[in-house]
Amino acid sequence: MAQTWFGPITAVQRRAMFALVPVAVAFGLVVGLAFLPLTSAFGGLAKVGSETVLELPDELVLPPAPESSTLYASDGTTVIATFGDQYRVQLEYDQIPESVVNALVATEDSNFFEHNGVDPEGVMRALVTNLADGGTSEGASTITMQYVRQVLSYTATTPDEVAAASEVTIDRKVKEMGYALALEEEMTKEEILTNYLNTVYFGNGAYGIGAAAQVYYGKVPADLTVAESAMLVGLIQSPSNYDPINGSSEAAQVRRDHVINRMVSVKSLTAAEGETARAEGLNLNPQDANNTMGGAIDSDYGFFVDYFEQWWNQQEDFGDSDEVRKARLYRGGYEIVSTLDVELQDAAQDAVEKQKPMGSEYALGSVVVEPGTGGIQVMAVNRNYSNDTSDNGPNTSNPEYKGSYPNTTNPLLSGNSAVPGYQAGSSFKMFTMLAALEEGLPLDTTIYSPYQYTSEYVVGDGAASCGNYWCPKNASESEVGNYNMWTGFGESVNTYFVQLAERIGVEKAINVAERLGIKFRAQEDLNLVTNSPETYGPFVLGVTQTTPLDMAAAYAALPADGVFCPPIPAQSATTLTGATIPFESACDQAVSVEVARAAVDAARCPTEYGAAAGNCTWGTAPQVGNAVDGPVAGKTGTTDSNSTNWFVGFTPNAAAAAFIADPDSPQNLVGKGNLGKPANAVADILAAQWDLNGEGDFTPPKELVH
Prior knowledge:
By secondary structure, the protein is an alpha+beta fold.
């Protein structure tokens, strides 16, 4: 049997040696390079596969420690949410006590201050041991190599990348050594120690020595004793096995004493100091880790924060997958300034709950969008943003009901594939009016409008059918006569707008709605607008489901002279390096300036603010004009049988949409008693908005009047 200086070679060991020859060569090259200046090492001397071992990835040059991102209100100072999945306290080197550094070096890498990233003695010892064992049981990882592994793990965005960063293979170890050699040319020993101690996991939700000192002892690191420093450093090897809070305090003390003994062995402690430290108890003072699990749940502005996070995850500039984008938000340390106006938001929440308090079976919610920017200033609804819905029970308006019924995370204000929205009623008449104006029909286009009108649109049998043709009615039998766009819009005359749609083609109204950002989330609506828009007559009166966010953004284009800006929840983000990333909506001239100004003039009639270029009769929402101390316009929206009710209104610098419906049971009609409550809420919201920012005026149209 062949012999070596460490003993005879067995058959198993011989096979292992032959299998490890290529990797051992790479080991040898890297170890050899560890004795040389790194500048002579580049050039691809050591490779694993096709990768240059010493090619340093960009993220390792100045690897960022994961940090939570902070979301501020539009004022740039009010924190409305944080996003992060780790409790971390960033420290500078001079904030880390010498006892922690000494304990770490003594236990993990006693030659740390002598080697240049790889410890040759440790590597050779590990190589011999692993060849003898036929495996990879001994790792020889220096602190620099461990730090490399941390960075690769923390910057990973998929489970496979996380596993690859810490897999127990010699291939990975060789790459790790190459990165460590290169890293030590870029960073000082103190920088490596600081970054390592700011990122390593200590258990119980604590990342970094700053968090660990707080979680285990309720202290800042500078106040740690030698024994406490040793206990914390001992956790690094296996936080779960040595956990003194939820695991074995005896195991933690044994591990701590091992660290103290290592410190004595390398002479960072005297024997007497070591004995004193070992005699000390664990003296724990456990504290909760202040982990931030998700911004929306912990925020008073949950619905807005939830929308922001969904928006962020759709921005391709932040990565090519949802996982990458979320990782950047939760670990990138961004300082993000949102568009949320907290003063207006709080006023809107009060206005909403004044009409319908928390716990009502009916959801009443409102969104405010800034014209010309698309900035979302308000998302208020009489619901709590919470995933604690275990006790929702049946709907009830009983004020004594104490369950979790008002809690939800459904995007009631912005919608998704599961929440398509609510029928918007007559507020959709705006799109027909805009389309007619685009076709050159002026505001004084007069049409005789009966109480009930049999249209050209075939709908089959139904309540609104006359011989298979759609035949809608007006809200009142007294609404009969000649109407134009001012009076028809002000009084919301159904039969006027159905005839207007017949003159221009309802597909043109649908096209305008799409240009103004209306999304068709319900499959039935999508099928109709896609396959047969020219026959979709009921679209005119708002049978389509939509959301307050869509409607506020669409109407915001009117005071912006026809410029539509897709809604956006953020203004800018500042990175850890201090670079600022501005966010701007992709605004577009959706309708012409004169068309928009003409539509605004007609929209002044429902609020009884009064048109500039024509004559209004009476309006369906005079309370809005009475409440707002400035120019205001808008439109009510009521559906058949009062299943939902809406109001969408705007001043020169804000557009607000509000709805009321039962989102859990659409068959539960809001009834006549709730009609007008969205308009009441918007009246209060726009009044508050005008008090905060009362600027601008509506420009009267010069064309499309007569």
